[in-house]
Amino acid sequence: MAFDLIVLGGGPAGYLASERAGHAGLSVLCIEERSVGGVCLNEGCIPTKTLLYSAKLYDGAAHGEKYGVTVEGIKIDHAKVVARKDKVVKTLVAGVSAALKANHVTLVNARGVITGKSDEGYTVEANGETYIGKRLLIATGSSPAVPPIPGLKEGIAAGFVCTNREILALTEKPEHLVVIGGGVIGLELASYFTSIGSKVTVIEMLDHIAGENDPELVALLKKNFEKRGVTFQLNAKVTEVTANAVKYEKDGAVTDIVCDKVLLSIGRRANTSGIGLESIHVLTERGAVVTDAHYENQSAGSLRGG
Fold first, then answer.
1. Residue 48 — left, alpha, or beta (φ > 0 → left; ψ -120 to 50 → alpha)?
2. 146-266 fold
3. Considering Cα of 37, then 42, then 48, then 53, what sign does the dihedral take?
């Protein structure tokens, strides 16, 4: 089958580009391996904010005495919070799918692999079918970075270590959660699990949390988190993950933290491996597609990279 445009990836970049191209009258194929909406809708921004809103309501009710509001028997049911999160995500995913359909976009739920380019266009294989597109948009997003820390991959395989995907699906709160990485994702989830009663320890290699944000605001944020019970280990390097603990080195000493779950949140990497970029000679740098000011990869002519 031939299309004016093939879009690899159905996240915020991919599905919006597909909608607009379809609305403009182009024949569009959008190929998404998982659910449309990408990380943001399914495993990131939307679900975390859904959890945090539930935590906000709970915190307001639990600590409202100083405002003259007293609630007896207050409790939060994490399983019900997750169920509501799933319902919100499902509704929004359905909305994205409906918008694609309304704009005459063909959606294929599969992993797409670029196999080459001919005079007819770019060829992409998905689910055993071959598709041809005059233009190709790469919008494959990102996935959690997994550094070569001893025991980390084994911990992920065993379910002891979670990425943002797995931890958002937990229906039971961990008694003690260790977060590796003090960036935005780690802090959001540290905030939620602290609110619902988990003990949370954040291990960060830098001397501060929240990345390159304003130092004054970061200091206030850290103080607020500590007031709520979060423990921070800064300037600390994780050296190993065992079956039930995380080992880290700080000030020349190695410490073990026994915990129930570990959240790995040290950054993300581009999803460009294994999608066939080499078949059309796309230039990449540290896994990311190299583009010009128009997001075009010059080594592939009309290829658009996002």
1. alpha
2. FAD/NAD(P)-binding domain (3.50.50)
3. positive
- Residue 93 amino acid letter: V
Architecture of domain 2-143+269-305: 3-Layer(bba) Sandwich (3.50)
Which are the contacts of 71, defined by CB distance < 8 A and separation ≥ 6?
A: 61, 62, 64
Q: What is the pLDDT of residues 123-155, one digit of tens each?
A: 999 999 999 999 999 999 999 999 999 999 999
Q: Is the pLDDT of residue 301 over 60?
A: no
- C-alpha torsion sign, points 188, 96, 22, 122: positive
Backbone conformation region of residue 287, classed left if phi is above 0, alpha if psi is from -120 to 50, else beta: left
3-state secondary structure of 293: coil
Residues 6+ apart with CB under 8 A from 59: 195
pLDDT band for 106, please (50, 70, 90 cuts).
Answer: very high
For residue range 180-198, list pLDDT tens digits in order: 999 999 999 999 999 999 9
Range(s) within the chain of domains with CATH label 3.50.50.60: 2-143+269-305, 146-266
3-class secondary-structure state, position 130: strand
Cα 215 from Cα 141, distance rounded (Å): 29
- How many residues would you count in the chain? 306
Q: Is the dihedral of CA 227, 233, 238, 243 positive or negative?
A: negative
Q: Within a 10 A sphere around the Cβ of 177, how many other Cβ atoms?
A: 25
CA 163/CA 168 separation, integer angstroms: 9
Question: Is the separation of the CB atoms in 205 and 186 below 8 Å?
Answer: no
Place of tokens 């065993």: 158
